[in-house]
Structures are given as structure tokens and as C-alpha cells.
Design goal:
mainly alpha, 72% helix, single chain, two-stranded antiparallel ribbon, 15 helices
């Protein structure tokens, strides 16, 4: 029996060898597939965890953006009031001076200028901080993930401080230049309008539209400059200030500033800024509309928006209303004005795109 079994095996030796090799190959292939499947599952799990961590960091960064905007609004408000002081003029009017009309004319220009500057600068502050904090947020994410192996951080604390201090341009030289341009536009649009002339809300909106056109398109000697200039100084000025003795941190800071300028010059940024300005001036008019409501009578139903078009106020009465709007616009207590800007979908989407760009390891060497 053993011999017959052996003979059978010899006759079918090749088949047994092939079967053995096939079985071994299937086993090894199964082990390989199992290992690859496990590696794929581990990679997917790691990517999911990394994405969740990245999303959490992004959302935390947006909350920081919102809080930073609110914390800086009082500083912005005080800077505007300092340069456009209407309180001294109203105090003069109370003393019944001989040049009362002249003071009222000055008050007209300064009151509208400071409220319009408040709208512009608050919108700029919102979008500029969105760019800056998401750029630095992206670098910090990489520092905490990609470069944990002890290599030099992409954004050390000194660089962060230098970079974020550039916001002072908007609160300083940029603001002064913005005030100059807006004041000139207000003078051209509202200068000829008599203090006694009555204006409807619609007519006021037309004047604001004219002022915006003058500021954003026809800046006279500054016509070659875009609105982004008020938010960041010229690159040449920054490099000139740093011309001697550049440290590694200085070079990194300049790189961040140049990347920010690229963002500020992009079509997407200008689109988002324009959306914010449209929303800001719309909210400004909504606030003004509260004072254009007709007197309520017992037999008169609540005013409708259409009824406001029939209400007009003398410009002299509109001036103090416009003058007080800065306290609503630049309020550190979340107001409808600031909340409207922070909640704009396009602002959130733009912030996400900036963060995505600068938190990607692929951009590490750029």
C-alpha cells in the first residue's frame, strides 16, 4: 500500500509541487493583503485624527480672531475720535459763538467723516486679522505637528510678535491717510449741502454711495493705491526699515508680511472686503433709519420700511445722529454691526482657504 501511494506521488509530483507553491503563494498573498489592509486602515485613521485635530485648531483660531477683533475695537475707536474730535466743536456751539454756522459746517464734515472711517476701518480690521491670524495659525499648526522633531520652528514667538504688530499701521499711518481721503470725499459730496436742507434716507444713501465711489475709485493723488495700502505699509518701506543687520527672525517676518501682501492683493480678498463694506454701510444706514421713523400716533400702525422713504430730516439734525454712530460701529460689546461682519459666510470661507494654504505641509518649502 505504501509503495502504491509512493508511486502515485511520483506520478503526480509536479502537480503536488504546483499545489504546494500555489497554496504557499495564496497564504503569503493573504498575509501581504492583510498587512496592506491594516496599513491602509492605520493611515486612514491617522489622516482622520489629523484632519479632526486640524479642524479643531482652525475653529479655535477663528474664535481667537473674533475675540481679537473685539479687543482691538476700543483702540480703533479712540484713535478715530482722537483724529476727528467733534466733542470740542459741540462744546464750542454751547457757548453760542459768533461763527456758529462755520462751526456747524466743520461739525458736518467731521461727523460724517468719522462714522464713514469707522465703517471702513472696522471692515478692514475684520478681514486683515482674518488673514494674519490664519496665516500665523497655519504656521503654528505645522510647528505643532510636522516640526515636532526638534527642528527650528517656522514661527517662533519673536516672529509672531513682529508680524502681528504690523496691525499698528491700520491704527496709525494707514488710518491717518484713510481719514484724509474720506474727509476729502465727504467735503466734495456733502460740502455743498445746506444745513437746513432736508434729506430722506434714500438721499442720504445716495450721498454715501458717492462718497464710497470717491474713496474707492477716485483717490486723487493716491489713485494708484488700493484699499489694502491702508492696512499694510509698502514693502519698500518695511525692507528699508530692516535694511541693516537682518536677523533670521527678521527674514521670516518679512516673508510672512510679503505673503500677507499677496493675500491682500488677491481678487478673493478684495471681493470679501467689498462684501464686508456693503454689509457695513447697509448696517450703518439701518442704524440711521431708526431716527427717520415718523411720529407714532394712536391711529397709525407701526412704520413700514416703505414709509421711511417719505420721512426727511434737516441735515443739521442728521449730523449728531451720524456723529454718534461710531460708538455702535466700533463697540467691543458684540453689536449687530460687528456680528454681521463676523458671521458673513464669504469671510468664513476665505479664512478657511487661507488656513488651508498655510497649514499644508506641502507649502513648507515654499
Amino acid at each position: 500500500m505504501l509503495s502504491s501511494t509512493w508511486n502515485f506521488i511520483k506520478r503526480h509530483k509536479r502537480k503536488f509541487i504546483f499545489a504546494g507553491v500555489f497554496a504557499g503563494g495564496v497564504y503569503l498573498l493573504g498575509k501581504y493583503a492583510q498587512r496592506k489592509l491594516q496599513e491602509m486602515q492605520e493611515r486612514e485613521a491617522a489622516e482622520y485624527i489629523a484632519q479632526a485635530r486640524r479642524q479643531f485648531h482652525f475653529e479655535s483660531n477663528q474664535r481667537t480672531c473674533n475675540m481679537t477683533v473685539l479687543s482691538m475695537l476700543p483702540t480703533l475707536r479712540e484713535a478715530i475720535i482722537h483724529h476727528l474730535n467733534t466733542e470740542s466743536l459741540t462744546a464750542l456751539l454751547k457757548s453760542k459763538p459768533a461763527n456758529k454756522v462755520e462751526i456747524w459746517e466743520d461739525l458736518k464734515i467731521i461727523s460724517f467723516t468719522r462714522s464713514i472711517v469707522a465703517v471702513y476701518s472696522t471692515c478692514m480690521l475684520v478681514v486683515l486679522l482674518r488673514v494674519q491670524l490664519n496665516i500665523i495659525g497655519g504656521y503654528l499648526y505645522l510647528d505643532n505637528s510636522v516640526t515636532k522633531n526638534g527642528t527650528t520652528p517656522l514661527a517662533p514667538p519673536e516672529v509672531q510678535q513682529q508680524y502681528l504688530s504690523s496691525i499698528q499701521h491700520l491704527l496709525g499711518d494707514g488710518l491717518i491717510e484713510l481719514i484724509t481721503v474720506v474727509k476729502k470725499a465727504v467735503q466734495e459730496a456733502l460740502g455743498p449741502v445746506s444745513l437746513k436742507q432736508s434729506l430722506s434716507l434714500q438721499e442720504l444713501e445716495q450721498h454715501l454711495t458717492q462718497i464710497r465711489r470717491l474713496v474707492e475709485n477716485d483717490c486723487g493723488s493716491l489713485k494708484h493705491r488700493t484699499l489694502s495700502w491702508y492696512m499694510m505699509p509698502d514693502e519698500e518701506n518695511t525692507l528699508a526699515d530692516q535694511a541693516s543687520g537682518l536677523t533670521e527672525n527678521d527674514i521670516t517676518t518679512i516673508k510672512l508680511l510679503n505673503e500677507t501682501r499677496d493675500m491682500l492683493d488677491s481678487p478673493d480678498f478684495n471681493t470679501v472686503l467689498n462684501i464686508c463694506l456693503n454689509r457695513g454701510f447697509s448696517r450703518f444706514l439701518d442704524n440711521m433709519a431708526e431716527f427717520f421713523r415718523p411720529p407714532q400716533q394712536d391711529s397709525t400702525p407701526c412704520s413700514t420700511p416703505d414709509s421711511l422713504s417719505h420721512v426727511s430730516l434737516p441735515l443739521a439734525k442728521i449730523i449728531p445722529i451720524a456723529n454718534g454712530q461710531i460708538h455702535s460701529i466700533c463697540s467691543e460689546i458684540p453689536s449687530h454691526f460687528v456680528q454681521d461682519l463676523l458671521m458673513i459666510d464669504q469671510v468664513k470661507e476665505f479664512a478657511a482657504n487661507v488656513y488651508e494654504t498655510f497649514s499644508s505641509p506641502l507649502d513648507l518649502q515654499k
